[in-house]
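#lab-general

N.A. 3:47 PM
ok so I finally got the sequence cleaned up, no stray characters, all 275 residues accounted for. can someone with queue access submit it? mine expired

B.Y. 3:52 PM
send it over

N.A. 3:53 PM
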Amino acid sequence: MQRQGLGPRAEGIENDMRKLNKLAACGAMAATLVLSGCRQDMHDQPKFFPQRGTDFYADGRSVRPQVENTVARGQLHEDAYFYTGLVNGKEGDGLPFPVTMAVLERGQERYNVYCTPCHSRVGNGIGMIVQRGYMKAGSFHSARLETAPLGHFFHVITNGYGAMPDYASQITPEDRWAIVAYIRALQLSQKATEADVPAGQKVESLASIAKKQGLPESDAEEWKLPPTAVTGTPDGGLYVLPTPGASGTTSGAAAPSRAGSTTPSGTPGQTVPKQ
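B.Y. 4:20 PM
back already:
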């Protein structure tokens, strides 16, 4: 029903004004409630700061000790040898899974990515960065490493050795073992004879292969240690650290001199001794 003296348009405006007043009142009430909660309680809340003491706990530590016999998700590592390469604190000899051609191919691919800069494609310790002045890496074809247990290589990849950094964050445990398998295959390949080749297989010399592929003849010759390479030991030998779990070894002892060892680095054109 239309109010007396007001037209339809004026009455509609009046109704809209009532609605706006109600909304304004509700907004004011909401703002009052919000402002009443804006205190410094969130800023000054009681809390512990890392590594600070407290009198809340009897031991005075704010950081609580870990619960015994608990393991973070994904860090159980129940197969200790698979993740450490150690058995009772000593380097084990064996692989935690069967070696297949796929494993060797994966190991070769990972080795070429992470290991060749120092150890070279053939594992003689004269990789490209060694030729540019970096410390000479270990040769996998030395008597020491040819007889080293497989767990040694896994342990070194995981934790580093001498000037070599660890690769635990870059290479998964599975790939580390694959690299170990390929290193052993590399060692066997460098000492292989025709008697090791299956019957019916053709054996070619490295020089013949290099010639077919259009590579320089020097690729088939013995690699030379550049004058920029360093070893860090008085007799030019490698820096040998103690084997984990072994006794009677002095940390940081230099490798004993061998017949045919090079003199301290710096002599141009010195030849890497055959090991």
